[in-house]
Amino acid sequence: MSTALLHVLRQNRLLRFAAALVALQVGLALLVPLLGFQDPYLQIMAQRIRPPGPEHLLGTDQLGRDVLARIVYGYRTSLLTCGAAVALALLMGGSIGMLAAYYRGWTDRLLMRMMDVLFAFPILLLAIGIIAVLGPSSLSAAYAIAIVYTPIFARLLRGPALVICESEYVQGAKAIGASDARILASHVLPNLMSVILVQASILLSAAILVEASLSFLGLGARPPTPSLGLMLSEGRNFLLLSPWPAVFAGLAILFLSFGFNLLGDALRDTLDPRLRRAE
Amino acid sequence: MSRNFLLIRLADLIVVLFGVSVLVFLMIRFIPGDAVAIMLGANTEITPERIAELESRLGLDLPVLQQYALWLTGVFHGDLGTSIWTGRPVTQEIGASLWPTAQLTLLSVIVGAGLSVPLGAFMAQSRGKGSEVAVRIGAIAGLTIPSFWLGIVSILLVAKYLPGVSMLGYVPFSQDPLGNLQRMILPVFALSLPMLANLSRLVRTAMLDALSQDYIRTARAKGAGRRRIVYHHALRNALIPFVTSVGVSIGYLLGGAIVVEQVFAIPGLGRLILGAIAERNYPLIQASILVVTASFVVINFLVDLLYAWIDPRISRQ
Predict the structure, then answer these.
(1) pLDDT band at A276 (very low <50, low <70, confident <90, very high)
(2) In sequence order, what are the residues at sequence separation of 6 or more whose Cβ sits closer than 8 angstroms to the Cβ of residue B141?
(3) CA of B134: which chain A residue's CA is closest?
(4) How far is CA A118 from the centre of its chain?
């Protein structure tokens, strides 16, 4: 698959652009401790609310902290929270979708009805309700996002999984007596990979916005954690004095979410044109 | 619309509403640790008497099934519980906050969905590689702009270039119609942009699909004008996937409204819920989530019916 991916990357300029945008931001988030950015927690009171300049490329915030450093570390917070949340959602929702498609009948009906109920809540409202129960923190936000996206993954993967379960190779594997677990792991799952890759990227893009919203509302990351949503809500309080922290934090959220959405969108076209119909 | 279709959908609706009510009811029971002590903890001293008093007030000392039955009976009688701190029925507090949110959401649907049709139809007229890429990037950018950031930036710009224009807060429409609408401009803009971006791309794709169908060729062969083909023949068929998407988008708007209300200091349900979370007023949180979700579910049910009415093939499946 990796050679196919490389080939596709070479072919498609839009995909290349999206992949580069995502790689840049993810790379920054992963490598930030090694890159010599300033300490995102360091408060220099004498340098509060500075506009962008040579010393602080994106200026400083109300406590004299370097905005660029806080944004890059904010990427880290956001990607850690959302990455873990989407992975968990994929694990739960993917399993449910695959089991429903494989066993059909009552298993299918029961599992998908449960998913319908979760899906009935407006996304952000359900996330807020879950955090109201668990108490505000980055971890609660991650759980909330994972639960909110579980029914979406289940619904998205059930359809393509149904098609695969009907296929001759799955029927053949059943006929020679392969176990259910083996069929699901080595026949159904690998054939779902392209759908999973596309949807994970698009849902990660949406999760980044949800996480930022939750932190903005004071329900996610706690101060003084560097968090993009938190930077926006703090920056709002001294907007007229210095708009920079809020403006840059918002742009950072936009670029991060935009990158993943474009990546998923471009992958959908190039990786497997049949996906459009499978959904 | 066939009667079977209606009955099946109605059964779905009831099952989902039942599931939603169970989850919302169980919310308090999911709180880790002693929920009642946590509820009391925010504002008062915790004593065993106070805990026992609140427990019996909330009915938490009864068996779960009985609690649920009592709670659901109350819900059907319009009793969604009492606010822990004010002692008033939560329906009163929700009622007072309902209109700003409903107005904000409704206006955003009208603007987002209303503008997306002509915009999508317009975009469908330009094809080719360059415009494909431009449409795609524009739509994704619109979809991923954080609405609260858009709100903050627009407040900043108005404060800078139009000083003295009040754009924050809320005035009831009945008191000051013009002031009400003026204060709705920025929030509606911020809230509806992602929906507009998403829907206009969808309309464009659906239009291009429709324009390549045989009946368009027939219409063209009969000598129908370009305008008539686009707006009368193609658009009508493009509307079918559009209607479903509008229904789903309303869920995003109801969630997004919570954040946008916070940015623009609008005293709606979002503020109510966040305030209730801060003071751990669980009956109020429960009731607000139930009201918003139930309305969303019913709206989507109506959208499903509308969908089947536009496209009779659906209900025959």
Answers:
(1) very low
(2) A254, A258, B197
(3) A14
(4) 19
- Interface confidence (ipTM) of the complex: 0.89
Q: What is the pLDDT of residue A115?
A: 95
Interface test with B, best of A110, A117, A201 (most B CBs within 10 A): A117
With bands split at pLDDT 50, 70 and 90, how would you rate the model's confidence at A248?
very high
Amino acid B17: pLDDT: 95
Provide the mean pLDDT of chain A.
Answer: 89
Check CB contact of B158 with chain A, cutoff 8 Å: no
Residue carrying the six token digits 């619904």: A155
Q: Which residues contact B279 (CB under 8 A, 6 or more apart)?
A: B42, B43, B84, B85
Q: Are A152 and A207 in contact (CB under 8 A)?
A: no
Task: Tell which residue, A200, A203, A234, A123, has the closest CA to residue B148.
Answer: A234
Look at A32 and B288; give whichever has higher pLDDT. B288
Q: Which residues in chain B (93-152) have CB-CB distances under 8 A to chain A? A: 133, 136-137, 140-141, 143-146, 148-150, 152
* Six-digit token string for B186: 């920025």
A66 beta partners: A60
Q: Residue A275's pLDDT is what?
A: 46
pLDDT value, residue A56: 79
Q: Give the Cα separation of A259 and A205 in Å (integer).
A: 8
Contacts of B296 (CB under 8 A, 6+ apart): A120, A121, A122, B250, B251, B254
- Disruptive mutation site among A124, A126, A202 for chain B (greatest number of B CBs within 10 Å): A124
Nearest by CB to A250, from B12, B153, B297: name it.
B153
Inter-chain CB proximity B292 and A122 less than 8 Å: yes
Burial classification of residue B48, based on how many CB atoms lie within 10 Å of its CB (0-12 exposed, 13-18 middle, 19 or more buried): exposed
**Per-residue pLDDT, B292:** 94
CA distance A148 to A119: 8
The residues of chain B scoring below 70 in pLDDT are 1, 33-35, 41-44, 314-317
